[in-house]
Write a structure and sequence with these properties.
Nuclear Transport Factor 2, Chain: A
């Protein structure tokens, strides 16, 4: 008879902190977060970039950048193009990812594609995008423009890597 109250106390102890209205954490492995899209296609590269922004993960982002990658944007105040390489791109993107609550990247239609994206070893794609950067609920920045991407691969059965990204946005 004394065992029943003891079991009830132990049960309450272990379940007493459970909120029946709160969802449980999903401990199951996420099968999509760590996976890259098919980098043998340019669309797969674009979806991987989108995924890296959604997860704010520079490890995923770095997988699509060539070792000789160059980022270019126009500094209209100076009237000149500004360039940086892969290492600075990863550092600046990491800083962005660390300082925002959310990033939503939407790829729009391609305005131009040069090169046979199936057999070619080099292609240039100009892709429209909308990027919503949420620093906090009262500080949201919307950036629209075009990403002028140059991609290369060593053979037609290898994966594409971005060798240059020229930012043609309103920011």
């Amino acid at each position: 008879m004394k065992l029943l109250p003891m079991v009830a106390i132990i049960t309450l102890f272990f379940t007493g902190c459970v909120n029946p209205f709160a969802p449980h954490l999903d401990d199951s492995p996420d099968r999509t977060q760590g996976q890259l899209d098919d980098l043998h296609t340019i669309d797969g590269v674009l979806q991987t970039i989108k995924k890296s922004y959604s997860y704010r993960d520079t490890t995923i982002y770095g997988k699509v950048l060539a070792s000789d990658y160059i980022f270019v944007y126009r500094d209209y105040d100076k009237g000149a193009d500004v360039f940086w390489g892969r290492d600075e791109e990863i550092r600046s993107t990491f800083g962005l990812f660390e300082n925002v609550q959310r990033l939503d990247l939407v790829w729009n239609n391609s305005t131009s594609v040069s090169g046979d994206t199936v057999q070619s070893l080099r292609a240039t794609v100009v892709k429209g995008f909308n990027l919503t950067v949420t620093f906090n609920p009262s500080d949201v920045v919307r950036i629209t423009g075009y990403a002028n991407l140059t991609l290369q691969r060593p053979s037609s059965d290898a994966t594409w890597l971005v060798t240059q990204w020229r930012d043609e946005s309103n920011y």
